[in-house]
Please model this.
Amino acid sequence: MPELPEVETVRRRLAPVLEGRRLERVEISDGRLTRPLDPAVVAAELSGERVDRLERRGKYLIVRFESGRALLVHLRMTGSFRQHATEGDPHARAVVRLDDGSDVVYRDVRRFGTWLLLEPDELEPYFASRLGEEPLGAAFTPAALSARLAKRKAPIKAALLDQRTVAGVGNIYADEALWRAKLHPLREAGGLRKPEVAALHAAVIAALEAGIERQGATLRDYRQPDGSSGSMQHEFKVYGREGEPCDRCGTAIDKIRVAGRGTWYCPRCQRLYAASSSSRRPSLSSRHSSV
DNA sequence: ACCTCGTCCTGGTTGC
DNA sequence: TGCAACCAGGACGAGG
Model:
């Protein structure tokens, strides 16, 4: 499940390999990859293009060509790139031969990943309708996040998974950000108070930056293009840690299901309801009796 | 307009 | 032991 930190790590590794190179030949062996377009047609269109820059927007990799066209790659669950072909790899779905003679292999066990070739004027509208602010960009402010959450009745976890709220957050980093912000995943998105939104804003950034610093998390299939693993999985505060103690308070991490996704949180640090007033100030009866 | 849920996919794990 | 059922989940479209 490559999310923003994993995709950014792939981008950084692949950029020096691809930038400036001409795609000599492209072979696509998975009929689903370019759906609904014929993969042979897309492969032929890609052949001869020269890579200008490798960029990222949310979880999308953007291969920008000198022609102005762009190949949008979404890795979905199990998509990955390898700088070296492995003989007889059953999950290799495409091979790109570069003009320096090297091959870049795209592999994807579950075949959810997609390649979409866009003309120069198609890129902007494609993202505009699908993605919110880039979380590590200047436009992602507490006010911007607040505006995206306003009046939404959905649980905050569901809102974070919606790419129009903030681009690039997936199931893992949503849980990690909510833990950092001390917010229960079922809190109503539009009901967060201003300081809570501010905390969430900072938490999203912190969680994603921690992931990038660790070169992503390696779970199941995700690998970097050179085959090495990220280490963020060892830093998870809640994700996948059901029953283990919370780093802050020692309470056992709980697992629930929100928006159809496994969701981990600390039941003590991340309360759904504010602590009852009786725990903070004397009850009516005790005040009366203390006279 | 917003929200929830089913769909797509395969491989690893669980349960009988 | 063998095999079926279940689980993982990002984006999208259908339906409420």
In short: DSSP finds eight helices and ten strands in chain A. Residues 32, 76-78, 91, 108-112, 151-154, 158, 220-221, 259-260 of chain A lie near DNA strand B (CB under 10 Å from a C1').
